[in-house]
């Protein structure tokens, strides 16, 4: 069996009636919105979707960007990208910034009414002169033309930022509605590789609206407490594959 995938697991499965808080990550909330059936099978029945393989280049870009912005965080200075785009802010200094950026910990909020602990790992947080925190997310790609947030599938990026904004607000911080995507685009228009990959870097603002989150969390709790597997989303590739396999076996 692949070392990257364990189909059935015994840990972190939701048990109705349990008094223990159930931890739910931002990505699992997004899975529910993508397909309630996949979410239920994963969190309630303990059978996860096959994972995608890690994008090592994207991870390398994330690591280097964090180091770069951390230099300005230590100096309490604006990054040149902020100055280029007229963003009046500096990287935010906080004792928990590394925890907030760590997978499997991240920013956390416990909802006592739902008995859920919600988590999400941010890429970065800036702060403006008014003391508002600004959520920042790093994205990497390689495509012709300028990067944007116009594609339908990028709704997941927008929900991701809104969820981080919501988590920080629930922790008592004043958070700007406007966040930023540091979007780097690998250039393919050069004459040669020469042992290096060059990127164009854009800063794309996005005004978030987190009003969908709390109603969605209530739906999720009802889904987890139910005994019937919900219907799949009509566009879910995973469910489509399962149904196709059942038709031929």
Automatic annotation (TrEMBL):
Q: Which InterPro entries match?
A: PDDEXK-like_dom_sf, PDDEXK_AddAB-type
Tree of life domain: Bacteria
The UniProt entry, under Pfam families, shows: PDDEXK_1
Ranges of residues in domain PD-(D/E)XK endonuclease-like: 98-243
Any idea what this protein is called? PD-(D/E)XK endonuclease-like domain-containing protein
Which organism's genome codes for this protein? Candidatus Colwellbacteria bacterium CG10_big_fil_rev_8_21_14_0_10_41_28
